[in-house]
Amino acid sequence: MDVSNLEAAFERITVADENDDLLVTSTTSSYHKSKGALSTTVSVSALASSNSAVNRQKVPPLQKLAATNASRIVNASVTKVTLPSHDSQSRTSDSISHRRTLTDSVLYIQPSIAKQWSLPMFDIGKPLGKGKFGRVYLAKEKSTGFVCALKVLHKNEISQGKVEKQVRREIEIQSHLAHPNVLRLFGHFHDSKRIILILEYAAKGELYKHLRRELKFPEWKAAQYIAQMAAALKYLHKKHVMHRDIKPENILVGIHGELKISDFGWSVHAPNNRRNTMCGTLDYLPPEMLRGAGKENYYTEKVDLWSLGVLMYEFLCGEAPFEDTQIQTQRRIARADYQIPNTVSAEAKDLIQRLLVLDPEKRIPLDEVETHPWIVKYCKTGERAYNRASGDKFRSSSERES
Ligand code: AMP
């Protein structure tokens, strides 16, 4: 890859941010102050609006489905979140008030700090990877030296792939999130052909590759990873965001080995915590989502708890618990039919069994995941949280007396 050619090509194009106003979360705002440069824009006005079907970007899980189910899933509209389209350039009070409801954070408009991002503002480095709709490059913001990842999405591929909704959702949701275990989206801009996302750089790449290389993770590592995922999901659920596509392919690893949930293409902001659309990846799909969309079949953020159980199983066993033919996988998920190998410790087995529960309401809550003995055993922060949560109850009488 000839970086100088790439940079030269970037220099030739004009990339103006067409956003005329700016919604900023309080957290983003403080970031802006501290770094003095980056800010978040949430308009995706250049994307053609479309109600068409959705596809996944990376792993094509839906292709694994039987044709009937696949079409049912693919045709399911996945969000009611409506974002401003290109024909609503002038912001109406409606669109602003709608966007105010997208997160719990206080949103406010600060046109004065709207940063007009463009490619010449970045030094472009090595390619980090290639997704279905574009490439990701290491980059440095010139004025601050801030290292980030630029994801370059091609508009024609997005509309051909009919994933406009997914991209909008990803930008809208991710730009309002700030948690150490959630990949930050600092901002975005576009030109006539491309949309460029300014992302946090995850130096150690995809968790999926780590898992494939190591085959499975030792329990201490799996426990620390599950604790981080539980913390991230707790944060998301507090903001009424269900991720709905938790799996190793959608998790990146930061410079210190910390996990960062990415790929919010399937996530959804659902303030009433109930959704009845169907999407996601078959191996990780919870039983309530397998049953398909329907008025009587709502599901909640507890879908992510099931996926956390599948993830934990895959970390410890090297494969997902329901891996089988497509039909068999569906049948086995519907019955929670899985076996945990004897190589897995009793404590870990207990947590998997508390997560992979058919009744969503009976799945172990995230607070209790964090204080589960298997997590506590391997995680210092878990231990502290455990002590705080359990108080005197679990201390020995001598400890209490001293
Ligand atoms: P995506 O289009 O999001 O699937 O990204 C394609 C590939 O680029 C991923 O599989 C990662 O290997 C890499 N990548 C994406 N985003 C980042 C990031 N923020 N930091 C480091 N690598 C990334």
TrEMBL record:
The keyword Lipid biosynthesis belongs to this UniProt entry's keyword annotation: no
Coiled-coil annotated spans: none
SMART domains xref list: S_TKc
Per UniProt, location of the Glycyl lysine isopeptide (Lys-Gly) (interchain with G-Cter in SUMO2) cross-link in this chain: 247
Protein kinase domain segment(s): 122-375
GO CC list: chromosome passenger complex; kinetochore; spindle midzone
EC number: 2.7.11.1
Binding site residues for ATP: 132, 151, 200-202, 249-250, 263
Family: Belongs to the protein kinase superfamily. Ser/Thr protein kinase family. Aurora subfamily.
Protein name: Aurora kinase
Species whose genome carries this gene: Pleomassaria siparia CBS 279.74
